[in-house]
Design goal:
Elements lengths: L1 H19 L7 E11 L4 E11 L6 E7 L11 H8 L15 E3 L4 E2 L2 E2 L1 E4 L6 E10 L4 E11 L8 E3 L2 E4 L5 E2 L2 E2 L2 E2 L15 E10 L3 E4 L2 E2 L2 H18 L17 E11 L4 E4 L3 E8 L5 E8 L4 H4 L2 H15 L7 E6 L7 E4 L2 E4 L5 H13 L1 H6 L12 H16 L14 H4 L2 H10 L16 H23 L1 H15 L6 H10 L5 H8 L6 E10 L2 E8 L8 E6 L2 E7 L4 E2 L9 E7 L5 E4 L14 E3 L10 E5 L9 E12 L3 E9 L8 E10 L4 E12 L5 E18 L4 E16 L6 E19 L5 E5 L3 E12 L6 E13 L5 E18 L2 E15 L68 E9 L11 E11 L10 H4 E11 L4 E9 L1 H11 L18 E4 L6 H9 L1
Helix pairs in contact: 5-6, 6-8, 8-11, 10-11, 11-12, 12-13
Amino acid sequence: MKLSLLVLLLLPALLFSQTVDKPYFQQEVNYKIVVSLDDEHHILNGSVEFEYINHSPDVLSEIWVHVWGNAFKNRNTAFCRQKLREGSSRFYFAKERDLGYYKGLDFQSGGQTLEWEYDKSNPDIALIRLPKPLEPGQKISIQTPMELKIPASFSRLGHVETSYQMTQWYPKPAVYDNKGWHQMPYLDMGEFYSEFGSFDVSITLPENYVVGATGVLQTPSEIEFLRKKEIESREILAGKVDVDQDIFPASSTKMKTIRYNAERVHDFAWFADKRFFVLKDTATLASGRTVDCWAMFPKSESEIWKQGAFYVKRAVEFYSEKVGDYPYPHATAVHSALSAGGGMEYPMITVIGDSGDGKNLDRVITHEVGHNWFYGILASNERDHPFMDEGLNSYYEDRYMGYYYGDSSPLVLPKKLYDPMKYGPTTEMGYLILALNHLDTPPDSHSNDFNELAYGLQVYMKTAACMRWLENSVGTDRFDDAMHDYYKKWQFKHPYPEDFRTVLEDHQLDVDWFFEAIQTKKRADYSLKKVSDQGNGEWKLEVKRKGELNSPFPVSAIRNGSVVKTVWNTDLTPVADTEPESRKQHYLFSVNNPDAFVIDNEFVTLDLNRKDNWRRSSGALSGTDPFQLKLLAPFQDVQRNTLGVFPWLGWNNADKTMVGLIFYKPFLPPRSFQFYLLPGYGIGSKQVVGLADVRYSFVPGGFIQKVTLGASAKSFDYDYIAEKDKFLRFYRFVPQIKAELRSNSLSYHHNIAFRTLFLNSENAVYNDIGYVTIGWGDLKTIYELKYEGKNDRLPNPFNFQVSLESQQYKTIFKSSANYLLGNFEWKQQFYYKRKKKITARFYAGYFLHNTLRNNSVLPPYYNPSLNAQGFNDYKYDQTFLARSGGAGILGRQVNQSGGGFKGAFGPAYAYVFGNSNNFITSINLKSDLPFRLPLKLPVKPYFDIGYFDDASSIGEAKSFNDQFVWSGGLMLEFLKGGLEVYFPIVNSDNLKSLYCEQAGGTNKSALFCGGNYLKMISWSFKINSIDPVNIIMDVVR
């Protein structure tokens, strides 16, 4: 009894132990595929047979199979959902004829139809139940007929007219390894994991197609066809023969069947195009073995593709030297339509999109050819651990570019605009934009945890930078030895991050910090705090580790502006007073007569803040950065305190033309402390004007993503009183705190903010006889709490805000008043076809408390309004060119806040229309036209409907129809809504009366009341959101 109880208690632990410690094994899948291409209907017909060999210690009763052609079947696929999340609706609104899917799948074994079903959530994953359990060491052969409707080119698999990219095109078993099954839906961003095996593939298609494929071509006639095609291509490219520019020729009525064999590969892709030129080169490896290198391309980029085969050859030789010999007989690059990045890799073949120039083509070909090592041969789980193929491969791509071009950066800007020695590599800039705002995702994260930008910056660039960091810290020879060993031990296998780590550690490399940098958000940040002369050429350096990452770093001694010695901290002598766990460390550095010391002078680490990385060897302010004033300075100089300056020009109806200077802290990368100051001078008012903003951000962790403390101020003139020859001005000061909240969704962002507005303005007061006095009003203090949410996911993105606003103030009669106003706004776009949408906005404003709710006079300010204009923008949130009204068309500027109506009736109507001391509500609609107008005129219909409730004693006499309004018309929309012009056409009676008065017409039954229609036109202009920091953060989120 006791023994039985002990077994029961230990059983879970024993099972867990077996699961964790299950030894490495690798399944095998061998394919025989026979297909025929119908290029008139874009259909591939044929059959697929695969032999599945169970090398695992487990008994298998089922096999998961990827049928990724079904990823393009409908809108209910992971691929479609990801594209919507990334802002692309092209597939979502695809026409039926452009979709892709399988027909006729019927999995059988030994003549017996097998039981199988699609995954409930993913139509591109199927589960086959085996007729009997598959024991370790056994194998089963499964066959199915296949009809694939080839989709248009939305991602990788697809066609553009009769150019075909046949990738992920056949049913393929998922990987089963010591971690279990790895079935996964097809994704555009997020790659693959497949079993090694062999392929025997026969393809029948019209004989004038040129085909590039995985595997070794077995058909003698096709080998001769390619040989002749290469000779013909060289003659054409040499100008001896002319051809039409990328015209698709008719397909031959004669068919050909070509056959390929491939061994030790885990995928098979082929590309067919009747327009392909063909070039060939030969790579010679250190072993003496040769590799055929092919380039296939149409005429469109033939000028740069003349070197395509040479680029393939050079990449094969480079990777073979740095990583390990290329094992396959050929490597091919083809230029074709590609909707998933600049290039895509498959065993022995890669597809490249448009490249622009030869250097970029060389980079992309090298990167994709390099994936034969990091994906093709070292076949890691790309979906779960994308850094193992994209990141490691990007590192070697960078080494290749650095070796052959002297610059490894994928983004090279003119040195006058961006000097890497002042601002750091562009790849580091991308990393810092995310890391400084804690928006970075560890490179060793699931592919679907990244947005598109972060995938590139983190998986590709950060991993490559960390690999370069590791190489420099241990030495290139030791690093290369370890990577050669990794290749030898894990070629044609499925390594995981822990396997990669084990190989590096077997070579005595310190990689704890490396994997922390890859697998966590820990960041490196070192500060050179002190430098002291110890005599006899010895210098004591005090370095503080400010970041969480305990990583190696180099220190350089500088003399006369040049580096005289560089030593890594791991090779420096630690001083005895250094505590092992302390963030402060002391080192001895031997050098004669240095002027300064610098941590990481060559930018080989990822230091979060390089401003404190250097220090002069002597002087009272040895660590103080020099100051510079620089015209147009978007980037922060790592060794200088830079103040950017730039002239600005503005205009409003009171100040007239305004000129001034912008002083600002460079905003790239966005750091914790940012500011800008815009002093100016109004030429018309002869007054000093301007605005300023300062903010400080920090990351508390947990549910709060980031907290920003800030304050802004502005002061301008807004009116002119001729009787006094006096300009009236306002000022505003707003301290604020904003907390950006963490979200589990990549597309949803939200924040909560609290601000206090201190406001005042000069006012003109007229008495009964018209005498005017001018003076400052009482200081007004408004408190506002606001929650905002935004979801960018197509096809119906939305944003909303809920706010509470409170103020205690004096009326014009000097009596005390106060209110608590609640506001709610919801704005959503409904796409009815690609790039065509209906935009709907709902607004409601309600006084939860208002001491003037039943006042006999309804003031034009401190109330929600259907018509937002300058005179009732009492918080001075918006920018108006003629804030006080008048001034013709300039005075008819409106803002799409509050009720969102388009009428601009001015202050004269403020007491009688659109305002409420109780509540208002409105709906605003506008729509893209489903067709394109001549000259691409950006015309849209709009329609507004609203209600304003007047709870004053006078308002009691108003009927529902008096307070219910609607208006519709046409608008011109420019700059994505930045500038809009409104032309009202139909209106409710009460609104029409106002428009008639405004137009100077009296005949309500006549068109435009018989008045001047131009006076009914209004417009809006959004300028408040032009903040470079906010724009950058909107892009990277």
